[in-house]
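Entry:
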Amino acid sequence: MRYWQTDGGIGIQLETDDDIWHLYNIIEVGDLVTASTVRREEKAGDKIRAERAEKRRMTLGIRVEKVEFSEDDVRLRILGVIESGPQDIGQHHTLMAEVGERMTISKRHWKETQVQRLKRAVADTNKPRMVFVSLDQDDATVAVLRQFGLKEVAAIRSGRSGKQYAGDGKDTYHADIIAKLRSMGENGSPLVLLGPGFEKEQLADSVKSAGLGNRVFVYHTGQSGMQGINELMKKGMGADLLRESRVGVEMEAVEKLMENIGRDGLATYGSKEVADAAAAGAVQTLLILDSRLRDADLDGVVRDVESQKGDVVVVSGQHDGGRQLEALGGLAAILRYRI
């Protein structure tokens, strides 16, 4: 992502699909979003003809009424009423936010957490995304770790039939996995191979022979599939590697929170409890679910924590750590001392 100050707000250039997630957490109802879009050309005095008119590109500013994020295709729909532009003032329109688009966002008030998210998006733009292959001898799950959560990309079957299988089948199985990895275009990204048994080590050899082995990491887990990836992240295996990713940092923070809640009580959760702890200077790490930032202005709590040299971690609701934090109300803190 790139952003810059404009006379009317902040201009944004979307460079990766992760940027679209950040944008979803920045745009609020009531904002004015201006962007190039496509709409049917207005034909005065001829409604039937206007409905059949060809669409043309124009710049419109809409006052936001609703924002919808689609995780499957990573697209953002911004719905609202046209407030500026060459035509149709007062009518509804939908802007589509996609990679490569530019837009300007004007707010009555920019929250500190929103500005921090913009800075974080810029810093994270060039970070390689982590790719996982979680497998056993029968099935492989390929997933990518985006800045907002895990995304399953493919499920590949080996075609073997257990003990009765007479052949090896390894070459075809591994070749299918490698072909999928090549098609993803994530060259240079860390590749994590995991699962029970020895299939992951054999795949590591195949990957390196295929020239994809620049950064290959192998971990043993009790399960394969998406469950195995979540097991890896929750248990902190490969912690140094996972810290390279935003989700890894978030999940590690949530795990530490849960440990403190269950062990020594150096943690608290709930809006009032966290605000009181922040005001007392007792917060070491503040954890905020991203949806809470869309629903409430928490700048005061954030300022209290940062003024006392505490850390602030905004946690995505799209992974298991975020769901754990959501169950606690979406706001929690790891404490320096009991209060």
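Residues 251-335 form a domain with the 60s Ribosomal Protein L30; Chain: A; fold (CATH 3.30.1330.30).
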